[in-house]
Amino acid sequence: MKHITTVIKPSLKRDVDHINCRECATSCQSACKTSCTVGNQTCRN
Amino acid sequence: MIILSDYDFPANVHLYPFQDIYIVLDVNSGAVHVVDQLAAEFIQAFINCRGDFYRAMEICAARYDWEKVMEVALEATGLWEDGSLFSDPEDPVIDFTDAPIKALCLNVAHVCNMKCTYCFASQGNFGLSPSLMSREAGHRALDFLVEHSQGVKHLEVDFFGGEPLLNWEVVKDIVEYGRHIEANSDKIFNFTLTTNCLLLDEEIMDYLVKENISVILSLDGRQEVNDRYRVLNNGEGTYKTILPKIHKMIEKGPISYYVRGTYTRSNLDFCEDVRHIVDLGINALSLEPAVGAGNDLAIREEDMPQVLKEYEKLALLLLEYHQQGRQVHFFHYDLDLQKGPCLAKRQTGCGACLHYLAITPEGDIYPCHQFVGHSDYCLGNILENSQLRTGIRQKFINNTLLTKEECRHCWARNFCGGGCHANNYFTNGDIGQPAQVACAMHRRRVEAAIYLDLKKRITP
User: Fold this and answer.
1) Residues B303, B304, B307, B313: is their CA dihedral positive or negative?
2) C-alpha R_g of chain B
3) What is the pLDDT of residues B12-64, one digit of tens each?
4) Could you tell me if A21 and B343 are in contact, meaning their C-beta atoms sit under 8 angstroms apart?
5) Around Cβ B156, how many Cβ atoms within 10 Å?
6) Distance between CA B396 and CA B419 in Å, rounded?
7) Are the Cβ atoms of A22 and B260 closer than 8 angstroms?
8) Each residue of B65-83: pLDDT tens digit?
9) Is the dihedral of CA B277, A32, B443, B40 positive or negative?
10) For chain A, which terminal residue's Cβ has fewer other Cβ atoms within 10 angstroms, N or C?
């Protein structure tokens, strides 16, 4: 019997080919303006 | 068997119950697991015993069959071996010194036709003289952005204020200038307009749609909530005036929209405002806590028990909509767990002063819209000189997740990026010192958003 179900596999991009392309949206620029979130931004790369 | 030495458990793994499930977030890999009661107890025991694997098994064996405990121990070991549980922090060290500027908040009007009690911009002028941005300053702002954008293709400009529609002709002119730049370069401008909606008319709406300008439309929720603080200069509420305009704007199909509200100490039951907005047929919204130094309406520590419960309730409400087949996007709960931002983005958070600056009507440059009017943080003036005061900018560049001791030990760090510099500054007088109330809110939102995402994935 499985006791642990992985729903989201490892996903954080850390390899140099995929980080810091800087084409993503700036988080506070959208519907926020007063309380920061970056986890809801999508990577364009 | 899992072997860890000097592992910072609170920073690297987060186990929490939420409603009907136990959730484990492996902070460094981004993996998320749903676990049963036994697995939750085993992982908690392993954390409590600071990585003593056999001791954790013994603790669980006192309550469960040894065979079952072995099953859990083997599963956990397999996940550790493949890097999705108790993974190590291996954050790349990135030098952001020469980071490009790629977003501007253009305060085209330091005046407002409303007098909202909680406004962090001091009713539109940020405590400065009322003023409107000139065409020349607007053009210069775009040139400045292009000059500092290096190889970045997608540039963002938000028309902000005050109320930007009070300077509509200049807004249009700046958009046209942006289109001219696009035609002669490889740059693409993504424009956004944040408005209180009072001056929205057919002509403006059609232009916003035609030019693919995203819109942020202000509404706080229920009429009595909205009209308590979102008032005209004569004190009259605005709900009835703006609602038809908001509906019309959305009907016209802008490239993207959000209805954005503010909640205060007066409506800690803000889920009812979310419900109200959704009942109005609006599917993309954001409700943000009131902020600001000396703002009597801003959320305080004593409000937190109710605020945290409300964020949990909100996850259930959004799940209910999902189960009804209705797609409702609440800004903070739209986490992209599978394809979120890279670690560089997560290290730098909101990007204020690094990738993002605010420009006043007079051309003064600030780290972000919330710092406008705080002269110690003025980085220069686009009309006088293109150079930025490097000392101030360097202070922000040096202020990343990796440099904030408190953030480095927080499990939610990769979702907030170190919090809002302005919140930190106005709360603690230091952009590097996290504001505890904001942090607690953020952690709860992340927990709730992960729960919501998981429930959408694992239930029909």
Assistant:
1) negative
2) 24
3) 999 999 999 999 999 999 999 999 999 999 999 999 999 999 999 999 999 99
4) no
5) 21
6) 12
7) no
8) 999 999 999 999 999 999 9
9) positive
10) N
